[in-house]
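Researcher: Go.
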Amino acid sequence: MTQLICVASWGNHGLVAAPDQTILPVQYQRRVGRPLCGDRVDIDLQPDSQWLATHIHPRSNCFARADRRGRRQQIAANLDQIVVVLAPEPAPSRDLIDRYLAAGEILGIACLLVLNKVDLDESALEALRERLNPYRQLGYRVLECSAETGHGLDQLAPELSGRQSLLAGQSGVGKSSLLNRLIPDLSVQTNSLSSATGKGKHTTTIAKLYFLEHSAGCIIDSPGVWEYGLWQMDSAELAHGFIEFRELLGTCRFQDCQHRAEPGCALLARAESDAVFAHRLACYQRLLREQQRFDQPTNY
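Model: Structure:
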């Protein structure tokens, strides 16, 4: 029996990597469940020469997003950090950034903001830098780089070394270009995945794990999105996703305060004198309204 890492997973089968990074196809048993990308699994070779996953090791965490009904869709496991890639074009909304950061806080996964394409239009770049300043003030790390020129990659690479990172962000922000810069043998690893599936081209609709060269780290590439939704949760858990709220939580007049319009709300009082806090509170309130829509019955 050998413990391996799941590098891709779909349906009742997937791909795992041995310690020497050899890729093997593996089948799943219903009683064992379906491993996620990044899971550690045990496998056994069957009499028919197929590898079978026999055990999924406990996860330290699990990154997820919501489906249209607010149900939690698990994407990848055992992450050390979420690397949120941003770019001047397409410019991200602060709402999207807030959602990713809230998810990381709720799941207990560190977030790193990476501003890519810094070689592009200077005015758009400065606008995005200004938009990111409040997050720096909150303590989130922001790195700048260019996959096109290689600028800043010497600062980004050490942040990935020895860690299992998830690459997330909007479609078009240059995640693929960054991967190609960070992993020179990416095409070799991609071809290895494709060969193991028996398909000419590996699917791009699932999370896939790639190993960093000359490093113990790996990157899980997730499909690009246009919007990111949080799964169904209660208001207290949602509020925990905003780090600046925490010192005030529990100090409102009402114990069950949802920080919308209740008298004596400590968060509303703070928002009156802090524009950044007010923006973040407005994002929380929008997310809370989304949560309440999840609670409504659906008619077919």
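Model: Residues 259 and 268 are 7 Å apart (CA to CA).
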